[in-house]
Amino acid sequence: MESKFAHIIVFFLLATSFETLLARKESDGPEVIELQKEFECNGKQRWPELIGVPTKLAKEIIEKENPSINDVPIILNGTPVPLNYRCNRVRLFDNILGDVVQIPLVS
After folding, report:
1. Signal peptide span per the entry (predicted)?
2. What is the average pLDDT across 42-63?
């Protein structure tokens, strides 16, 4: 029992020793700035007005309003998705009725 407690204490000490990720400034170095520029996407990025709209219609609207988006998967709400970020993708989360239930975002 004592060794489990010791492991928990060590885990929390290690976890609190790591710094959280913060926004960086130009003084932090060019490699950090280049990484931030990589994720700057062009065109419209979010469509809150599409909540409740049928997903097939929402897909057409998104592709029309931002031509750089060519990947618009329709996903059942609650399905786990990878957290990688791509400027050409907008995930549409729908319910069983086929309506958009989350704000579509470039992700």
Report:
1. 1-23
2. 95
Q: Quick one: pLDDT at residue 8? A: 72
Please give the helix or strand (H or E) that residue 8 lies within, else none: helix 2-17
DSSP states of 26-63 as a string? GGG-HHHHHHHHHT---S--B-GGGTTSBHHHHHHHHH
52 inside domain: yes
Is the pLDDT confidence value at 87 over 70?
Answer: yes
Task: Identify the band that residue 67 occupies on the pLDDT scale cut at 50, 70 and 90.
Answer: very high
Determine, yes or no, domain membership for 100: no
94 touches 100 (CB < 8 A): yes
- Which domain does 40 fall in, by range? 2-94
